[in-house]
Please model this.
Amino acid sequence: MPQAGPAVPSTAAQHGRHDRILTAATSMLAAGGEDALQMKDLSQRAGVSVATLYRYFPAKDHVLLGILLSRYSSALTRVTAEITPGATARDRVTGHLLREFRAQQREPRLTAALSRVISETRRSYSEVIEQVEHLHLQMLEHVASGGAPISAEQRQLLPVVQAIFGAATRRWLAGVSSPAQARFEIRVGCRLLDLPDVAVAEDALLAGPAN
Amino acid sequence: MPQAGPAVPSTAAQHGRHDRILTAATSMLAAGGEDALQMKDLSQRAGVSVATLYRYFPAKDHVLLGILLSRYSSALTRVTAEITPGATARDRVTGHLLREFRAQQREPRLTAALSRVISETRRSYSEVIEQVEHLHLQMLEHVASGGAPISAEQRQLLPVVQAIFGAATRRWLAGVSSPAQARFEIRVGCRLLDLPDVAVAEDALLAGPAN
DNA sequence: CACAAAAACAGAACGGATTCCAGAAAGCAG
DNA sequence: CTGCTTTCTGGAATCCGTTCTGTTTTTGTG
Model:
């Protein structure tokens, strides 16, 4: 019956393997994109066997999610260490997301892979995806707060802003929009944070034939 | 040199194959989700050989994109045939998207597959994806207009609204948010259409360290 | 109708993700 | 140190998307 596997590594050696896998995967992705990340290859570069690789990450996509988890988790501690500049919550969030987008532009292939996996809908991913989005949300919340806590309305809107950000990035990656267009979308999306009367009555608009 | 392949079928028999493939794929997806759609299987149900299937659709994901294309294209003609009810552009778009979401809820597995593929970023998909999004956009534009043409500002915002809609759907599918939450996000996103002064000065907010 | 080109077919072949297996290595209680 | 459990390993096996091959229709044209 026992066969848990180190979703979270405990010993130092295990931490090492976990790290080496993520590091190797990151550089492979950055260099050649998702096609260049092959599990056999990755296991060799990380110095573990294929079976072990699969013990640490039950699927290739989980490696990508692992990268996201690790990146957002360190980004969160970095960001919460300081107070983001900006006069209003909207300004701070806008500035932060524009900077995040600028950073993503530097690693297009890596970003493409990570953006793809974060918008998966398979149930086997949802737990990790939720964790990742939660980290990002915490980051946005801290950025928005600028020290003082934010309003409940704004908190409610942050996931939407986050979604707009993700979509803007994806549209840029897919070649559908230019970086300038993406920045525009981010800026516009952040304006939601200034919206008055956010709580809208439910289901007043559902009359009419379905699509 | 000759080996074009019927990206768009010309003869009746080809139309038939193209249709049978999409129909079979749709029902397989609706029944069992993406995992239940296997190319060999699909080719048999559609009554074509694997090679022919691949002549019509160069990859599995292209079958999904084909479904999207066909669905949105008939939805577009259906929607443009009438005038969507609603007092303002925002109301009409909100209502339309809420109905579209309701329709998607009825076929969760199918929707999951289609939502996933539409947010791919691989360059080989971008042309078709752009077509699909263009159809959806045309539909939104018609809905928004309600007869008279819409403002340039609103036109600029429709892609963002579209992206919010897609993200809301995905978040629901991934189990990250409830249907009510998704509807909330759609409604809030549509409020962008009422935003004043949409044209924002570029890059006033980029100071500070990158993420 | 006959013939060349294009399209379709059945099935084998290939590649990469994932799984399975039997043995070696590492960690740990006594 | 010894025995026992867990982890790791190399490599074979499996599954499925995709490609390839040789052959058989189908189509278009004179």
Summary: Chain B has a mean pLDDT of 90. Residues 11, 13, 38-40, 50-51, 54, 58-60 of chain B lie near DNA strand D (CB under 10 Å from a C1').
